[in-house]
Design goal:
Helices cover about 40% and strands about 15% of the residues. By secondary structure, the protein is α/β, with parallel strands linked by helices. It binds pyridoxal-5'-phosphate.
Length: about 400
């Protein structure tokens, strides 16, 4: 076979999107290792290690599963293992990902009631409480911990406290941009099903989701009548107990996961969470000096959604930033299209890159609109950013 250099086209981009994210060098090294077979003692050990470390991130004593599917597959896995035909499901919908979970539940024949929340706002836990009091037969409540399309955090701890009082109701949480980026202790917060995603807070390439069920949820997992095969966690649990996965293991990603979990857990989770929070605080403070406003009333930790100043199209800023400065951030979708920029704080990010990002956004805005009356000069902004670091 002829050798080709596929890397030729890969310029060194700085990926500051809310997933996928910049990879840590030690993760890249792990990804480049030669293949080993998954039915070997060598791989069994890696899998056992990764599964044990995952429990610490989920903060649960229940088994955690690794699924070779993107985050959406993990959401579907939580659903098909707990849902039965005709179940009443309450879906909190505050953006694109809430909408997706609603559609999945409808696809599987659930009777879905949608609790609509304005984009950029967090759900009011009292609204969920009222619904459950009127509809105690509700089987599942679905919610994003962080709604990535709007950069908004939902009050998961408060929701968990309410939902656990209802014996027939499970609380399923999409933590794809929260789990691994901020505190989300599954057991203490009464979360019954939790999913994380590889290319988001787990700082890996796309293609893997991580999930777990509470003890309360397992009672439903054993009897739920939704047809399931690939996503049947009962089968996977038996295989994991023997140190294997039921289907072929995603050796490459699981090896990299085992490396990334050490980065997340050392010295401890709180240090990792603090770094992410600091990047978010910085982005929000500096962006506001530049004339942006915060799109979300309850800003998330894993990403920041910024409303662009009047007269700017966010999509234009984003595309030009990528073309001229090789920095990738995201715009908005649907009703937020052209109005917001979304900056990810997950992944391998060094402090100078945060400063570079904000500078390059500033420059891009002056390139797009030379008559822009910026509320701060670039020199002043640079000074603020240098000072910010010393305070951080
Ligand atoms: C990215 C994301 C998803 C979807 O994950 P995929 O890996 O694209 O399937 C679901 N929920 C949230 C909150 C996300 O950020």
């Amino acid at each position: 076979m002829q050798e080709t250099n596929h890397n030729k086209s890969a310029k060194q981009d700085l990926v500051l999107a809310p997933g996928p994210v910049n990879l840590h060098p030690s993760v890249q090294t792990a990804l480049a290792l030669p293949m080993i077979h998954h039915r070997t003692p060598e791989f069994d050990l890696i899998l056992r290690e990764a599964l044990a470390k995952l429990k610490k991130v989920f903060q649960t004593d229940q088994p955690v599963f690794i699924s070779t599917s993107t985050g959406s597959g993990g959401m579907e896995c939580l659903l098909v293992n707990t849902l039965s035909k005709g179940d009443l499901v309450l879906c909190i919908e505050s953006g694109k990902f809430g909408e997706r979970w609603k559609e999945m539940a409808q696809t599987y024949g659930a009777e879905v009631h949608t609790l609509k929340v304005n984009w950029g706002e967090a759900v009011n836990p009292n609204d969920v409480h009222e619904f459950l009091k009127k509809n105690p037969r509700t089987s599942l409540v679905l919610c994003q911990a962080c709604e990535t399309s709007t950069g908004t955090s939902h009050p998961i701890e408060a929701l968990g406290k309410i939902i656990q009082q209802f014996k027939d109701t499970l609380f399923l949480v999409d933590g794809i941009t929260a789990l691994g980026a901020e505190p989300l202790p599954m057991k203490d917060w009464f979360i019954d099903g939790l999913v994380g995603g590889s290319q988001k807070a787990f700082m890996l390439p796309t293609g893997m989701s991580l999930l777990s069920f509470s003890e309360k949820a397992w009672k439903k997992v054993l009897v739920a009548d939704t047809p399931r095969y690939y996503f049947d966690v009962r089968r996977e649990l038996k295989a994991n107990q023997k140190g294997e996965t039921f289907f072929s293991s995603n050796v490459t990603l699981i090896r990299a996961l085992n490396v990334v979990l050490d980065l997340i857990l050392k010295p401890d989770l709180s240090g990792h969470f603090a770094e992410i929070k600091q990047r978010g605080d910085f982005a929000r403070d500096i962006a506001q000096l530049m004339g942006f406003t915060l799109f979300s009333k309850a800003p998330a930790r894993a990403l920041t959604a910024l409303t662009v100043p009047d007269g700017f199209d966010s999509q234009k800023i984003r595309l030009q930033l990528e073309k001229n400065h090789h920095i990738t951030i995201m715009g908005g979708q649907d009703q937020a299209q052209g109005k917001i920029l979304r900056i990810g704080h997950m992944g391998y990010i060094q402090w100078p890159q945060m400063i570079d990002l904000m500078e390059k956004i500033y420059l891009t805005m002056t390139e797009i609109n030379p008559s822009w009356k910026a509320p701060i000069t670039l020199t002043e902004l640079q000074k603020k950013m240098r000072e910010y670091k010393t305070h951080g």
